[in-house]
Amino acid sequence: MTVTQEFGQQANGQWTLTADDMAVELSLFSFLQKAIVVRHTRLGHYEFTPIPDGAFSIYTKAEVEKKAKYRDQTFWTANRPIALSGSERHMSRFIHELKQGSAYQYIMAGLKLLTENFIETGSSTHPSKVDIGPVNTLLTSNFIDGFRTRISAQTTGNLNPHLFLSGYYSHGWRSHKNYYNGEITYSFNRKDYLPDEFPMRYVRLASSYDVCAPTDRFLTTDKDNVFTSLKWTSVDKMMLYRRHTVSLVREERWGLRTTLSFKQETDKARGQLHFIPLSTKEEQSFKTTELSLQLRYAPGEKFVNTKQRRRPLNRDVPVITLSHTLGMKGLFGAQYHSNMTDLSLFSRLWVKSWGKIDIDIKAGAQWNQVPYPLLCMPAANLSYITQYSTFGLINNMEFLNDRYASLMLTWDLNGKIFNRLPLIKKLKWREYIGIRTLWGTLTDKNNPYQLSNYTSNTLMAFPEGSYQMDTNRPYVEVLAGVHNVFRFFHIEYVRRLNYLHLPTAHKQGIRVKFSLKF
Fold first, then answer.
1. CA 431: distance to chain centroid?
2. CA-to-CA dists, residue 18 to 11, 191, 258, 424, 466, angstroms
3. What DSSP state is assigned to residue 227?
């Protein structure tokens, strides 16, 4: 990489940067063709008038010139500060000729399928109005359905920049059941492609009928992802749900996101999961109606949008989330009154050449007497694929609490040790260590084993494999991993340190993830 900078003297005598040029030679692997990227930057029209303090307020509205993202070639020809070289002028023609080749079309289609996980239905002259996907949910499996197929689709901003539709139809071949999900989203601000583009300001109506495991709520990806369906333990406690939600989301440019949602849901136990009240000892369905408010504050957070979700670009900003869910008994047949509060904090610390440390703290409480599906379940990841902010060796609903706190620390040393080891340093691996802890307690009013609760109309018998935590002994697991393996993979070893006497306990395991980092 080469960087060349030039400075010029202004009328007031100050020297300022006027030219900033960079050239970078890139290669993914040594045996592949190299590429070169050249960037020319010119700076001028410096202004030295003092800036009012109010201009730095986080509430200041960002001003964006109309059509700033859509400039034609005439605009760039008139405003380009440096004339293009001969090869640069002919680049567009070269790209056009390249696209005409069948090999290029097949290669690009495969790469887009791999990176975007969606199939576009449009072309270069007619942009896609409907995308088919996610592709990795076409074929999957679970304990209830066995082999399962699914077809999904979503509309884009090319069809309507304010109104978006998405959904799927799925069939379980062993259960012979059909499932569906449908969503309609109206965005109050115009979107280029998808409603989740920053800033989000929309109202969404959704209806779904499907089967899931209780821990699927903690997945950061689609529950039908074919890779996350590969489990390290048997997930035989599942439920059939019918869910209707209305969500209102407003995101401010200075970092605050407010989410207000209303949900009505009916669940029926499937597999080894049972909803059995202590008073009747008979299986029943489980109905809830909930109103939720979530406040998420992340000042300065930036995103990149994919066709499936948005991903944060800068983890350096602190993220504070506070949410409360109110269960309203009697409304639309709801059977229980509940109040659940959750608070979380994420922060990243840079330790100079020793890499970075990620700190993830969560705490929550269920304030009312409720059946176990409304208690605090640990964020268990039952897949071989690593998931953000989850435990790697806690089983499905293994611990049930009505008060909890968790701390997750991960330290990416960024090659600080491996770069000093002969031979190993040539692999360019990066070491990674961490610890995850969970503290929890179950108060007497939510303990089905208390004699005073044996005839409760509210509490339910815990499912097999669910236990109480020792208040004085938090759960602990440690991990050690390596990323940048073959440039694409993250591999980690997870070891559980306590509660090993439980029949559901797994002492250790290997987890993997596809992760391209630079």
1. 23
2. 14, 35, 42, 43, 66
3. T
| 494 CB neighbour count, 10 Å cutoff | 23
Measured CA to CA in angstroms, residue 108 lies from 26, 121, 128, 131, 133 at distances of: 20, 15, 16, 16, 17
What's the token pair of residue 1? 């990489």
pLDDT tens column, 484-502: 888 888 999 999 999 999 9
- What is the pLDDT, as a whole number, of residue 366? 97
Coil, strand or helix: which one is 87? Answer: helix
The Cβ-side half-sphere exposure at 494, using a 13 Å CA radius, reads: 28
Measured CA to CA, the distance from residue 336 to residue 289 in angstroms comes to 8
- Beta partners for residue 167, in sequence order: 153, 182
Which own/partner contact pairs does 296-299 have at CB distance under 8 Å and 24+ positions apart?
296/256, 296/257, 296/258, 296/259, 296/320, 296/321, 296/322, 297/255, 297/256, 297/257, 297/321, 298/255, 298/257, 299/58, 299/254, 299/255
CB atoms near residue 129 (< 10 Å): 14
Q: What is the DSSP letter of 85?
A: P
Query: d(Cα 161, Cα 60) in Å, to the nearest integer?
Result: 25
**What does pTM read for this prediction?**
0.85
Question: Both tokens of residue 374?
Answer: 């409304």
For residues 283 and 274, is the Cβ–Cβ distance under 8 A?
A: yes
Classified as helix, coil or strand, 150 is strand
Q: Which CA distances in Å does 9 have to 2, 15, 49, 137, 425?
A: 24, 4, 17, 59, 45
Mean pLDDT on 277-290 = 92
Residues 36-49: tens digit of each pLDDT: 888 999 999 899 98
Contact present, 74 and 52 (Cβ < 8 Å): no
